[in-house]
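Appendix B. Raw example, untouched.
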Amino acid sequence: MVALKVQSLDGIVTAYLQSLGYQGENLQTTLDFLMKNYADKLNQEDVIASMDEILYAAVKKYLPSQRGDKTQALAMFKTLFLLEKGAENCGSALFENGFVTDELQQKLKANPLQAAPQVKMTTMEAQKIETLPFFAFLGKIFHLFRKG
């Protein structure tokens, strides 16, 4: 288990980028770009949601529209981004100008991941439970012995 102690805005953004697969010099370059251009726009109460908005704005043109709501589409993108090592291939260009490699674009279009449909809770009407005739017959026999 890994313990992560976050003490600053840089730390939160660094952890977010690491969750996308950024590391080393690529991580530092992307972090520097984000802090220079977006630090004042980040919601201090929910930095992760703000980072998701920045990422979504950068990649929404690549996301298939039939994939459900924004949260599901972004989760699908993040999954493929990690699986295809997008951080190594796209680098900070992902956030700078929404650059996604052609290979990753093809994977997004043909990806087998499907968002699960929303769960709809309803009440079920009571149903009559019918017993098998054999058990009813046994019940009558035992009932006769008890009276007997």
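End of appendix B.
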